[in-house]
From TrEMBL:
Keywords: Hydrolase. The lineage of its organism: Bacteria, Pseudomonadati, Planctomycetota, Planctomycetia, Pirellulales. Belongs to the glucosamine/galactosamine-6-phosphate isomerase family. 6-phosphogluconolactonase subfamily. It catalyses: 6-phospho-D-glucono-1,5-lactone + H2O = 6-phospho-D-gluconate + H(+). It is an enzyme of class 3 (hydrolase). It comes from the Bacteria. GO terms for molecular function: 6-phosphogluconolactonase activity. The keyword Hydrolase applies. The gene is pgl_2. Gene3D superfamilies: 3.40.50.1360. This is 6-phosphogluconolactonase.
């Protein structure tokens, strides 16, 4: 893993920095519309607040085509919905064109939705030379079990799946989720991890340094060409 590590004092500072970096990155892109896949979680909530607040005037959302890395199989009105959270916090407050917002239909049958969402990605995301959809940017989180997207340790086969999307099952709750697969994530032009919290420091060391139990952690197998970890002081304390 040839990754860049950026460390910050706390989650709020991390969110501020990435919001600023995102605005600069978008401004540097030559294509008129970029494709971005977002994750859910606590750190993205802080980021969403920044995007809807102090950075609202810094980002031209008309240039962004927005997708989700993963989604829980619940209606958008459910508090578990990644889209629902993002919509409440920032999507409803910024001028992102409705036809450039591509949510996972969590309320639909998971197997049917996996196929439908993969087809939607196929229509709107450019493919690379290998024929794999290539997002311009994928934003990931990491759980304290080493999962990323909704690729959990008991479903490592999704890291090499030939499909664009898979139906994942949460190892504890049994909740179904739609997730992008490893090849799609790894073919993105740029991948960013946003990781906070002392509960993740041990796993993060193994993932970054390829030590200990790293082979059991899905996050260890994210090796995009342009890969950056944004980590707060608590998560980074073992590095």
């Amino acid at each position: 893993m040839n990754a860049k590590i950026q460390k910050f004092s706390d989650p709020a500072t991390l969110a501020d920095s990435f919001a600023n970096d995102f605005a600069q990155w978008l401004g540097d892109q030559s294509q008129p519309i970029v494709t971005v896949a977002l994750s859910g979680g606590s750190t993205p909530r802080l980021l969403f607040e920044r995007w809807a607040g102090e950075f609202a005037g810094e980002i031209d959302w008309s240039r962004v085509r927005l997708f989700w890395v993963d989604e829980r199989c619940v209606p958008p009105s459910d508090s578990d919905s990644n889209f629902g959270v993002a919509n409440d916090i920032f999507l409803s407050k910024v001028d992102l064109p409705a036809d450039q917002l591509h949510r996972v239909h969590g309320e639909s049958n998971p197997d049917d939705e996996r196929t439908r969402y993969a087809d939607e990605i196929d229509r709107f995301v450019r493919k690379d030379s290998d024929g794999v959809p290539q997002f311009d940017l994928v934003v990931l989180g990491m759980g304290d079990d080493g999962h990323t997207a909704s690729i959990f340790p008991h479903q490592m086969e999704f890291l090499t799946s030939s499909d664009v999307c898979e139906v994942a099952t949460h190892p504890t709750s049994g909740q179904k989720r739609i997730t992008l697969t490893g090849p799609v994530i790894n073919h993105a032009k740029k991948v960013v991890f946003l990781i906070t919290g002392a509960n993740k420091k041990g796993v993060l060391v193994d993932v970054v340094k390829k030590t200990g139990l790293f082979k059991t952690y899905p996050a260890s197998f994210i090796d995009a060409t342009d890969l950056t970890f944004y980590v707060d002081e608590d998560a980074a304390s073992g590095l």
